[in-house]
Amino acid sequence: MIDVHAHHFFYKNFNEVIEENKRKGVKIIIESGIDPKTNRKVIENSKIDIVYFSLGFHPTDIVKFNEEEIRKEIEFIENFDHNKFLAIGEIGLDFYWVKDKDLIKKQIFWFSEFLSLAERKKKPVVIHSREAEKEVIEILKSYNVKVILHSFWKPKLVKEVIDNNFFISIPAFVYKDKGLQKIVKETPVDLILTETDAPFLDPIEKRNNKSWKIEYGIKKIAEIKNIDIEEVKKNIIKNFEKIFNINDDSHAI
Asked: Alpha carbon 190 to chain centroid distance?
């Protein structure tokens, strides 16, 4: 199982949680930073074999920082290299929590700056787009980056997503959510990845999500697509390798 988007660093017993994921068959977890502090944390946590990371600035957090602080973080990410540094993210727009017009403008400006950073670093982007899906898609079209839409929840925009060859990472929450199930039905299997957004979006409990619960997502994807569970897993691995340019037989998969 591969979890392309998680925040296990929110757990106080992080090491125990990762060991639990390993015991239950998880092979790769991408921990996504959301601000300078957690970017450092995911780098530190990548000492564990199955943990990889993305570095970014969450749209609801970036509005709390000043230009100097944000520029400093962009500079840090631009000059940082690590074999487990797989993507720029979590970045994007959030019009659900952020309503102020000036703060929305600030989000849009820095979103574009991080997309430019991803172009320069030649890294895929992990995108947050809550209540801002249409705007996010329009902005993404202007950049030459591979795109992973995290927790994308707008079925009516799926065709446009497919036309632009963007990947959608399906949360384990699809196990009980009709909207996500509709998105799976409409999305080609070669554009699907799996995620949890742990500890959030738990498919069976409340905010106790962990990467191993991807098994619930895989089960539902297989059911919707009418294909074998193992076939789903093979496609997820293939898609993962494609978007992250991983062709090495020695890789953790």
From this structure: 17
Give DSSP secondary structure letters for 111-165.
HHHHHHHHHHHT--EEEEEET-HHHHHHHHTTS---EEEET---GGGHHHHHHTT
Strand partners, 32: 54
Query: Is omega for the bond preceding 199 within 30 degrees of 0, making it cis?
Result: yes
Q: What is the overall mean pLDDT for the chain?
A: 95
Cβ neighbours of 231 (radius 10 Å): 13
User: Hey, what amino acid is at 210?
Assistant: K
- What is the three-state SS of 31-77? EECCCHHHHHHHHHHCCCCCEEEEECCCHHHHCCCCHHHHHHHHHHH
Q: What whole-number distance in Å separates Cα of residue 191 and Cα of residue 165? A: 7
Whether residue 18 lies inside any domain: the answer is yes
Q: Range of 186's domain?
A: 2-243
Q: Does 206 reside within a domain?
A: yes
Q: Is 229 within a domain?
A: yes
Q: Between 151 and 147, whose confidence is greater?
A: 147
Mean pLDDT of 123-137: 97
Q: Is residue 252 part of a domain?
A: no
| Packing angle of the helix pair 214-225, 178-186 (nearest 10 deg) | 50
Dihedral over alpha carbons 248, 120, 128, 227 (to 10 degrees) = -30
d(CA 133, CA 138): 9
For the whole prediction, is pTM greater than 0.85? Answer: yes
Name the domain count of the chain. Answer: 1
* 9 closest CA partner among 43, 59, 49, 56: 43
Identity of the residue numbered 239: N
Kindly report the CATH number assigned to the domain that includes residue 22: 3.20.20.140
